[in-house]
Protein 1
Amino acid sequence: MNHETTRRELLGHAVRGAGLLGLGGVAVYLTAKAGDEGVWVLDISKCVNSRLGATGIEACELCATSCVRPLSAVRAINDFEKCGRCYICPAYFDVMSEVDENGLPSAKLCPRDAIKREPIGWVDPDDPANNFYEYTIDEALCNGCGICVLACKDPSGLGSILLEVRYDLCLDCNRCSNAAACPDDAIDRKPLSRAGAPQRHPAS
Amino acid sequence: MQYRQVRVISGKGSQPEQFATALRGIALDRTGALYAVGDSEVKVFDADGTLRRRWPTSKPGYCVAVDRDGTVYVGQERQVQRFDDAGKPLDAWRDTERMGLVTAIGLIEDNVLIADARDRCIRRYDKRGRFRNDIGKDNRTRGFLIPNGVLDLAIDAEGIIHAANPGRHRVERYSLEGQLLGRFGRFTGPDPRGFSGCCNPTNLTVTRAGRVVVTEKAGPRAKVYDATGKLLAIVANDAFDQNCKNMDVAVDAQGRIYVVDTVRLHICVFTPMDDRAASEPASAPAEGATKP
Amino acid sequence: MKRSALLAPMLVLLTLATPTESLYAQYERPVDVAPTEEDIGSGYVTPAVQRPLPRSTLLNITDIVLLLGAMGISAWLGLVRRSRTGIVVLAIACAVYFGFYRKGCVCPIGAIQNVAVALTDPSYAVSYVVIAFFFAPLVLALLFGRVFCGGACPFGAIQELVVLRPVQVPRRLDKALGLLKYVYLALAIWFAVLPAVERDFIICRFDPFVGFFRRTGPAYMLIIGGAFLVLGMFVGRPYCRYLCPYGGLLAQLARFSWKGVTITPDKELDCGLCAESCPYGAIEKMRAVRTSCLSCARCYTACPRERAPARGDASVESHEATG
């Protein structure tokens, strides 16, 4: 009986040991490859809202509605280094709305009012057209619909507003529903090492 | 007043009369010959569109102007290159501090006015290339507001500089000394009487009678204003590729309007449909009346 | 191989970190005419682009630590402390954190396919978090049985909470249905190892409960999930027992587990109350079957011996469960 138990225990230890070694081996193999796993990247040269040459169209708003997050993990950013800081920003204002008494368009473009407008620099008290304006997108409100991106695109704008995947919200789903919905295949999984050359530091 | 399109000159392609990648600036000389710069070439066309001659420039040209004596000025990145009327290179003006990107040149008497899009102002030189003064630099935004990337100017019969200030939706008039003499235009959204979009008008020229012809981008169109800023005509609404911007414009003695389609790389020619406009009251003939 | 094993912990710290600028694709701009800081004046400084940073390394490590902790507590509560209340509290906590807060990602179930792809496709890799989430429950299963299912898995938790009036599924039917999860596992691996263009992450696509955690999802997903929850009122944990491919992996490893649930603290009474109390049909011949025991601790509460003697006896060495 005692002998029997010991043998069974030994056998059990052996099986478990082999199992642990096997799992460990596979884990080590995967660990050696890890660090270059893919992330979902939005290719702005494919996205119809920012793709040059695609004009006279309606904005594609699928990123706002397709994402599994209640607030889409795709959002618009304004690249301040490229923004013309226009007096009348076609992405902030609906430039086809009637002009109000201040000489500005009466309607804003963003359906969620997520863009803020502030005069900056030397502010001219007499002539509001004689100033630069900063346009800042409120990331808590922006749902990535891309309407402003299309309006800012060359030639009507400078193309400083672009859609991006927010990696704080992106769940890194195996099946990205934005990618599945995108008619231009603009969202694709890319390994970190191949996700594009460094352009700038995100928060430097 | 109405215009109709009568001709298309040049186009995209590899033929001698065509441009391969870019067509940026046009100008007319006193005889009505059309000078066009693009790629790294100057091409001279007859009024009917046949290529008369062509020659290379050292860098891609952004604008062109023709002096009374036939000297051709071509604005480029960091320099202005000069040619004689046969296309032989004369010299190149370089001024590292004051010439970033030359997108318009105006010629009047002994003055050469150079629009520097990099520093967003107009430089006044004499014909020997000596700098005199800046125009349009002394304001709170340190120059013209040109989010479109191009600064355009024209000189009228009285030697007054007209410059487009698209960020403010205005056409501004300056004296040669840099004093702001007047302005017209404002943002009017969908109403064509004023200017639309973020930054319009982008380019302009002045007729002998002092009318101002402007082009806008997004959507691309050309319009004619009188000297007080009253809209006289919409030359064309749908003649250009929707992606066009910074369409250079020129006008000849007969009132024909030449507009560059910067995507299709051709020049659209529009003629007034009624005779009154064609024979607009002639005033003193001016040098550089047809701006680059 | 050995060196990478040594380097792994350091690499974890390095590469869990922010995937930085390389994520943002290049864009050829037509013009570059933005006003400079000097143009704008008044000491204006161009602000940095608002770009929320990815989940930090620290938070990712926190997830892994919490998973290990949850499984450790689950093992302790189920095997030593024998506390049904404790297990329920732990399950709710894990459903809240891994389910509703972390939105059900990363989960070891879906990770099966990622791991399968990473093992067969040289150009595909999985992150350290995925590796940890996939392997930790397997190792724990070798040691203590399916403790992941019992307390840590948010899918298990959500089904555990809806068990209302469970029926005993006839043993043969139960066994037959139990084979489904191996079919699903095989299918999942098959779809994962297909060439990249045909690859399909079916586990994620037909994930029944993640829609509830995210409070949004395709209609079919929510319908499947709702159906499983309604069924789950009468058939204990139908997804875990019959469909969960990861449950299949855990079951086979739990077969050889070092310790497992032992129902009676000392000597069984042969009363059979425990078997009746088990909604998962995991008790055969008065003993917990390690492959199907989900470590839920219901049997303890049903056991007269558990209730009668002093608590101090609870940890007394008892009969081995059958493997």
Note: Chain B touches chain A through 28 residues (CB under 8 Å).
Protein 2
Amino acid sequence: MLTSPGLSKKTETNIKLPLSFILFGLGAFVLSQFIFFIHSDALTNGIFRLPELLMGAHFLLLGWIVMVIMGAMYQLVPVAFLTPIWSEKLGFIQLFITGFGIIIFSLLLGMNLNLAVYGAIFVIVGILLFLFQMLMTLRSQQQKNIMTLFVSTALVCFLITIVLGFILAWTIAFGATLNYTATLQSHILLGVAGWFTLLIFGFSYKMVPMFSLSHGFLMKWAKLAFIFYTLGLLGLILSFWFKLSILLPISWVILWFGFTFFALDIKEIIMKRMKRKLDRPFTFSLLAIGFGWIIHSLAAILSIFSINNQGLWSWLIFLYIICWIMFSILGYLYKIVPFLWWTYKYSSKVGKSNVPLLKDLINEKLGTVIFVLFTIGIIGLSISGLLNASYGVQLFQGLMLTTSILYGLSIVNVLRK
Amino acid sequence: MNLFEQVKEALYEVIDPELGINIVDLGLIYNIEVTEESDVVVNMTLTTPGCPLHDSIVGGVESAIYFIDGVNKVDVKLVWQPAWTPDHMSDKAKKMLMY
């Protein structure tokens, strides 16, 4: 028998670190939904660049999604990459700076756009510290794999995204001359598709087999998924900067292939699972992959037929963020938070006394209701938005707000068990 | 009941909290050795390297064995060869995963 010494060292992180990020994220999530609710008129008219919506969008993207991903990475990287976090102390410093920066930056975006650059400085410092932390942590990984490639590339995309974001904030404040539109398009693309999507791809290759107890799958499309998706991103960036319109539909189709290859691998993993009945929140994360595939298909079709309606594309980006990225995270968080709490409270009691199972810590039935409500909310919001029906947008955004509060409470409730 | 049997029985009490199945039925225990000095050596694996429950399950095995009267030292060795496959599971575990 072979024992791998590197594989048997302690990998658990102090749960206060990931949990603090996640709780901050939940607060930002509810706040973003509240901002969208009180500015639902702007949502109806597709004016996504209104300062108040920019504030909501950055509370959603930075405050909720980025902070939750950072927290999840502090927990997942040590266990998935079999290497401890380089410095937990740095993690707490980074939490404080990033959290403070996100609050200031998002508020300034909504209240005084010209000063937003000063908030952005804190965000950038916080994120650079996070990237440095991850670089030092991943460097010590003994055996690199395809997941390392996805996660490392996602981190590079994240770095470029924040640099571009800073350039945008600088331009607004001081009016430097540069290709503003191409910078903004690259910032959005690398932020949502580069950073978030590649990261979800990478971690899904670890988490989907784990949560479904799958065995004997080949992951034969993983390399192609990586190559196609990164090539698609590169093609789109080139088309933004050099006005190569022919590259647009080609790149969207390449991205579609990349996403499809990933979806094929996940389908195989699920087909070869041992656990027949999957947990419902986890099923919701899988459903998000279906939504993601539909959105990639729509983007490819719109691009092939040169449909450049800005309102339609804005809604597509919105749906990409909500239905693919956010729904994936909502589902996975229902697994991650019970695990964190269980590890903190019950891990040391295993083998000594009866301990609850992970699923005993979360109300799965309530979770199902919440996930159904989110789905109804986003479908209603999309239809109302496309029809310019302001009452519909207000109603369904109200539903999203209420459901986000319920979701937050259901997660916090885990910490009482 | 001799010490070997007591150890084996104790390991049935270590439950994988994600699956709700004990680690013996899951086929995670490869070998148990009890020396004349009452030292216990366990060779075990996990369903996948990088399992988030790594520390909890290994710690749980140690605790469960130390709980037995007369045990001297416990050494839990986590091994990855041969790799775990579903064939290692008992029929009972397979049945539990169906529902």
Note: The two ends of chain B are 34 Å apart (CA to CA).
Protein 3
Amino acid sequence: MKTTLTQLEQDIINQYQKGLPLCSTPYKAIAQALNSSEEEVLSAIQALDNAGILSRVGAVFNHKKAGSSTLAALAVPEAELDSIAEIVNQFDHVNHNYGREHGYNLWFVVTASDEQALIEVIAKIEQLTGYPVLVLPMEKSYHIDLAFNINFAESPRGCH
Amino acid sequence: MSNYTSPHNLQLSSLERQFVLLTQSGLPIVAQPYQYVAEQLQITEADVLAMTTDLKERGIIRRIAAVPNHYKLGYRYNGMTVWDVEDEYVSEFGQAVGRLPFVSHCYLRPRHLPQWNYNLFAMVHGKTTQEVQQYRTQIKDLLINVLQVRNDDSDHGIKLMTNDILTSTEILKKTGLRLKR
């Protein structure tokens, strides 16, 4: 089990979660920037990947360009939360679903090929759950990147 | 030089579609990952690099990156902070909140009065619930003069607050957006 990250591993995560250099040998470029070698960078990334600390090295899609999507919420009795969540999760159109502490206690993202399809999915969710869906599409983004700075100083030791 | 030409719209060409399918769940960790993609797609590495640049410019992919699993890094708590910001100030102050280093998304969304009066959403992440609460306080300090104070909607028995935080209790589903085969 991996418990602490090397400085190189920390630097790779914080600097390259925002994108790899777009060139033939990106790990060589990273090595140059971090004062390391291509072999060390490759083995560090491999170790992070093996430990599940990286979910992948790959493409990150722009949800907004993938069709029509919205944040949505349901207010359901606590006792029904799991069964209602199961109904919502059945939809391939739902890619996130979180239980949250609030009157609106089920929060999910619905994505469809276009707006009409999105409206239809939401209507179907309302019909199957019996509760009105609060529909909160993004009108404007004030922050475009999902990467945030990782604070390793306070990392708990037991990363599993 | 690359022979790659862009279709100039949001539609994906057949080659781009193959590229997306090949790269979305991860690239092999090898010295020349784009060469690997090139071999799979039977095009040149220069074409793969040009296509990647083009897909980024068209906004279809944000980046090709080392994507961390925040949960594994100790970020077990997320809080969706929501704010009722006066409309005339929401753009300026939304951008200020979006610049805070611990905010991962900051969006303007519609209100649905009377049951939902919040128009600004800022997602924060922390390793403890205290950390998440502290971030909420920092955002509140920033927004304190532009929050809308509303009378309670007594007809509906709803108490309208200027802000709230919705902490996650459980992840019920989480799959990254994927192009279907």
Note: Strands of chain B lie at 61-68, 77-83, 103-108, 120-126, 163-174.
